[in-house]
Specification:
ubiquitin-like modifier activating enzyme activity; single chain; 42% helix; ThiF_NAD_FAD-bd; THIF-type NAD/FAD binding fold domain-containing protein; coiled coil
């Protein structure tokens, strides 16, 4: 089979899988709703609860304020990609 034929087969399969995924989701987005108020309670529904321990220990006074910050990362190689992930896990407002 020619290289172009394999690429077309793969592209067609990707489109089929995307359609199946959309049908499985019921046409809705997979994004989680934004948590309006960060709770210090440790629960599975609060992805930032482990970080709220810093507030309870008195290390951070207003942890919720981190959601208002925007951070620009120049280069997402070995260090930048880890930095972007950690900032996202911490609940930073926006990463550019």
């Amino acid at each position: 089979m020619a290289e172009g034929g394999r690429v077309e087969l793969l592209e067609r399969r990707v489109r089929e899988l995307e359609r199946e995924l959309e049908l499985a989701r019921g046409g809705r987005a997979a994004a989680r709703a934004r948590i309006e108020t960060m709770s210090p309670e440790v629960t599975d529904s609060n992805p930032y609860s482990r970080l709220m321990a810093l507030k309870r220990m008195g290390i951070v006074k207003d942890y919720e304020k981190i959601r208002t910050f925007t951070v620009a990362i120049v280069g997402v190689g070995g260090v930048g990609s880890v930095t972007a992930e950690m900032l996202t896990r911490c609940g930073i407002g926006k990463v550019i």
